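User: tokens in, sequence out, please.
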């Protein structure tokens, strides 16, 4: 039977079944990740974004087409996760704008909405890349506009639109070399096709289940295991600045290394910033006094803090801590050790997430609400979170800056470049500049067979990634780490920091550090417990 118009109830069912279809196929989309790493999450991010849209639709009592589309737009905006989720939210935003003041939809209405969806998404991305979900959305919209004068049946119209979308999806590897080399099509584009197919199924009469969806199932934050006091090897978090000194920070780092761990020593323009976990803060301070005057000394008893606060501080405590502050910091990270490093560097609120679960725009807005600094600086620490952070910035009325850190080491470096005495503009400039001087390495495992950068990779191989490129492949973690660093180290580097993950014992991390000391005699090697999942090591080279 010919379908010439869509009423609001069918539009509602189309949105819901689009989300259902994507959710059922999210693992197919996840598997299309270019890198064969264990955190491919495009499908999950898009599904959670769609589910947030549906949650808002179902909570909306006004069942007009405009209100349904508006609810989908606002819901996806708040629930957007990862770059793919943010782009999807912009597609839904544009699509919703095209449905304003519509009591029923004809082919022209749908085609114009597709066009507005594509235009809105393109405008939201600073440097649009062809061969992605954007290309699929654009060509779908162009085909839809062509069909307006030809088709009068919405079912046939959508079938041809989807056929065009599948055709361009198959051509995405010809537009992006990384897709061709990995032997995959664009994951975001694939997700969009599932959304369109789900909508078509509802329009053609498929029964749509509108009962409750467990929206929190995959979005729940990971609950952290309490650490026993006895597991805290060095009890005093000690921070200070050595002022008016031209002493070599690397020499000072070596002098205090025997007194503790989690050590960060950075010199810049006559000062040395020091952070160390130690059982003898007095001895560390004595060494520092030999080379200059000390300012901003801060010593915290971590064992006492732990006993006083086994559970994470509640919202009221967090607000109290950051009241009357000029600056508040929000960082995204995963792993108890890395969280501890950020806390020691005065980060006010840490959002659990990163490689394995990208926080939503709403998660970031919630974090913004929990801090009370006059200026708020967000460190995404993952390239797939930067768009959501910027989206949260646009939605908030607070004074927010997003430093586009793509890795944990970049986030740490940015914090060390921060100076309380400088204004916000100079600080942001300095923090962004500091990112360029950090090389990040990652050691993980492959989840599928593929070929990248002329390297044949088999499932379960150990892979070494450096700033977005796979540089080393092998069967042994230490061997791959050494090969990765041989490819990445240059004459300007001074220090290598190993953040070892939850699957690596400290003794194994120390063994790798010894190998690195033999290989790179002129560099300082530090070992820090990161506790991150899936990644055996995160490596910082400065």
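Assistant: Sequence out:
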């Amino acid at each position: 039977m010919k379908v010439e118009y869509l009423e609001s109830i069918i539009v509602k069912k189309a949105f819901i079944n689009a989300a259902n279809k994507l959710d059922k196929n999210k693992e197919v989309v996840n598997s299309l990740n270019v890198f064969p790493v264990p955190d491919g999450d495009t499908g999950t991010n898009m599904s959670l974004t769609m589910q947030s849209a549906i949650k808002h639709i179902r909570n909306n009592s006004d069942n007009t087409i405009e209100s349904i589309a508006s609810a989908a737009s606002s819901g996806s905006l708040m629930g957007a996760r990862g770059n793919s989720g943010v782009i999807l939210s912009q597609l839904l935003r544009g699509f919703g704008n095209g449905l304003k003041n519509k009591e029923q939809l004809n082919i022209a209405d749908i085609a114009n909405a597709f066009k507005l969806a594509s235009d809105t998404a393109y405008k939201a991305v600073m440097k649009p890349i062809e061969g992605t979900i954007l290309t699929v959305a654009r060509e779908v919209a162009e085909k839809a506009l062509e069909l307006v004068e030809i088709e009068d049946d919405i079912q046939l119209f959508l079938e041809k639109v989807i056929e065009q979308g599948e055709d361009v999806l198959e051509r995405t590897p010809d537009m992006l070399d990384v897709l061709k080399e990995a032997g995959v099509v664009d994951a975001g584009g694939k997700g969009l096709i599932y959304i369109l197919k789900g909508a078509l199924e509802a329009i053609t009469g498929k029964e749509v289940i509108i009962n409750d969806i467990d929206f929190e199932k995959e979005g729940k934050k990971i609950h952290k295991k309490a650490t026993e006091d006895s597991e805290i090897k060095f009890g005093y978090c000690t921070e200070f600045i050595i002022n008016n000194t031209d002493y070599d920070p690397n020499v000072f780092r070596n002098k205090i290394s025997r007194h503790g761990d989690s050590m960060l020593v950075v010199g810049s323009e006559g000062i040395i910033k020091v952070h160390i976990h130690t059982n003898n803060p007095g001895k560390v301070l004595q060494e520092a006094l030999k080379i200059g005057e000390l300012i901003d000394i801060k010593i915290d008893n971590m064992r006492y803090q732990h006993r006083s606060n086994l559970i994470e501080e509640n919202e009221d405590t967090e607000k109290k801590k950051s009241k009357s502050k000029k600056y508040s910091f929000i960082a995204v990270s995963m792993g108890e050790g890395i969280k501890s490093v950020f806390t020691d560097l005065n980060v006010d609120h840490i959002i659990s997430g990163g490689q394995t679960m990208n926080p939503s725009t709403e998660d970031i807005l919630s974090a913004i609400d929990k801090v009370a600094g006059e200026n708020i600086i967000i460190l995404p620490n993952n390239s797939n979170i930067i768009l959501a952070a910027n989206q949260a910035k646009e939605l908030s009325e607070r004074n927010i800056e997003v430093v586009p850190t793509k890795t944990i080491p970049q986030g740490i470096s940015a914090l060390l470049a921060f100076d309380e005495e400088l204004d916000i503009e100079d600080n942001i400039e300095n923090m962004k500049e500091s990112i360029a001087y950090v090389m990040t390495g990652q050691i993980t495992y492959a989840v599928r067979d593929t070929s990248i950068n002329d390297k044949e990779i088999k499932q379960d191989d150990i892979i070494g990634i450096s700033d977005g490129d796979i540089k080393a492949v092998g069967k042994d973690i230490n061997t791959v780490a050494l090969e990765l660093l041989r490819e990445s180290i240059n004459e300007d580097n001074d220090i290598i920091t190993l953040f070892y993950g939850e699957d690596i014992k400290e003794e194994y991390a120390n063994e790798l550090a010894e190998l690195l000391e033999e290989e790179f005699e002129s560099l300082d090697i530090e070992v820090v417990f990161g506790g991150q999942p899936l990644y055996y090591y995160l490596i910082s080279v400065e």
